[in-house]
Amino acid sequence: AELKLWGGRFTGGTDPLMELYNASLPYDKKMYVADLEGTRVYTSALHKVGLLNDHELSEIHRGLKLVEAEWAEGKFVEKPGDEDIHTANERRLGELIGRDISGKVHTGRSRNDQVATDMRLYVREELAKIRAILVGLIKVFVSRAEKEMDILMPGYTHLQRAQPIRWSHWLSSHATYLANDLERLDQVIKRVNRSPLGAGALAGHPYGVDREYIADNLGFESVIGNSLTAVADRDFVVETLFWGSLVLNHLSKFSEDLIIYSTAEFGFIKLADAYSTGSSLMPQKKNPDSLELLRGKSGRVFGQLAGFMMSLKATPSTYNKDLQEDKEPLFDCLTTVSHSLSIATGVISTLSVDAAKMRAALTMDMLATDLADYLVRKGVPFRETHHISGEAVATSEKLGLSGIDQLTLEQYKQIDARFDADVVNVFNFETSVERRTATGGTAKSAVLAQLKNIASSLN
Ligand code: ARG
User: Fold this and answer.
1) In the Enzyme Commission scheme, what number(s) does this protein have (predicted)?
2) CA-319 nearest atom, ligand 1
3) CATH fit for domain 7-102, picks 2.60.40.1180, 3.20.20.70, 3.10.560.10, 1.10.275.10
4) Which of 65, 248, 316, 364 gets the highest tally of CB atoms within 10 A of its CB?
5) What is the CA radius of gyration of the chain?
6) Atom 7, ligand 1: which residue's CA is nearest?
7) Cα–Cα distance measured from residue 456 to residue 459, given in angstroms and rounded to the nearest whole number
8) Confidence (pTM)
C-alpha cells in the first residue's frame, strides 16, 4: 500500500470503497490556490519562530510555486493516496523539493486548521466575485427604472389588479431587496474573513506561532480567538448558504412576476431570444426557461442549506469528518448563485416592455381608492368614503358601465351629495400615481429618490 500521511499506526489496508468514500480531492482540489497560499504564509510563520531556516523556507516557497503551476496548467498528477487537496499538495511538494524539507511544513499544523483556512480563503474570493455580479444586477434594475420612468402598469395584491404604479417602482422594489442582499453579503464576508490557522488540531500551537502575523499575511481581518472553535466553526458556510438561499428567493419572486407578465394573456414584457428557448414539438412556442430556472434554483440552494444544517447538528466539539460535508453544497451554492445572478442580469437588461399593453391593463376601478380619497379631502372620514366609493363601483357594475368614470355627476350626487363636478379629476392614472409622493411611493419624485438611495449604497 502507498504511504499514507497518517499511516504510522496502521497495519491493515483501507477498504477501496472506504478510500473513495473518504476522499474529498475530486471536489476540494478547486481550493488548490488557497491551500498553497496558506502553506506559504504558515511556513513563513514557522521560519519566524526558528522552526525553518532560510534555505528550507526558500526551497518550500519555490516548491509551492511549482506545485501551483502544475495545477494551473492541468499537469498535476493525482496519485492513489491523495486523500484531499492538503495531502496531494504536500505529497507533490515532497517529490519536488525532497521530503527532508517538505516534511517540516506541517509542524504544529493540522489538516483541521488547514482546511478551515482554505475554505475561508476560497469563500472570500468567490463571494467577492459574486458581489461584483450582484452590484451589476442592481445597476441594471436602477438604470432601466430611470429610463422607463413614464411607463404605468397595474400593481397587484393577491395577483388581483389593485392600484396603478410605475413600472420603475416595480423595478425599484426588486432592486431594494437586492441592495439589502448586498449589505447582508458584506456582513457575511466580515465573518468569513477570520483566521483559524495556527489553532493546530484543536488545542492550540505548541511553538508560539504568531497567529496575528499569519492572519495579516493571508488578508484576514482577525484571528479566531478559540482554537477549538477555529477548527470546527462552519457558521460561515451556513451563512453563505443562507445568504445564497435568500438571494435566490428574491430572484425567484421577480422571475415569477415576469413569467406571468410574459404570457400572451398579460403581454407586458417579452424576453430576449437569448434567454428563451423553443419547444421541440410546438413551433410557435417561446418559453421563459431562464426565469423558470431562476425560480427553480431557489429550491436547490435552500435544500443545500437545510442539508448542511442537518449534517452540522449535534456534531461533537472540534473537528469531525462530518464537516467534510460542507464542501459540495457550498461549492454548488456558489456556482448556482453566481450563474443565477449573471443570468438575471442578462434577462433584465434585455427584456422589452410593452408600455401600451401595461397601460391597457389599467382599469378605472383601480382608482376606487382615489375616489374614496377625493371625499377624504373634503373632510369625510375614510371608513365612510371607502363605503361610498364601493357603492359607486357597485352602481357602475349594475348599470353595465365600463367603469366608475362613466357615472354622471347626477348619479354621483345620488350616491353622496358631497360629490362635485371636480370628481372627474379623480379618473386619471397619472394623477393617482403622482399623489403618492411620500417616501417609498410610486410618484416620480419618490421613485427617483429610491433609485438615488440604492445607487448610493453601491460601492
Ligand atoms: N478533507 C478534510 C475535510 O475536508 C480535511 C480535514 C481532515 N482532517 C482530519 N482530521 N481528518 O474536512
Assistant:
1) 4.3.2.1
2) 10
3) 1.10.275.10
4) 248
5) 31
6) 111
7) 8
8) 0.95
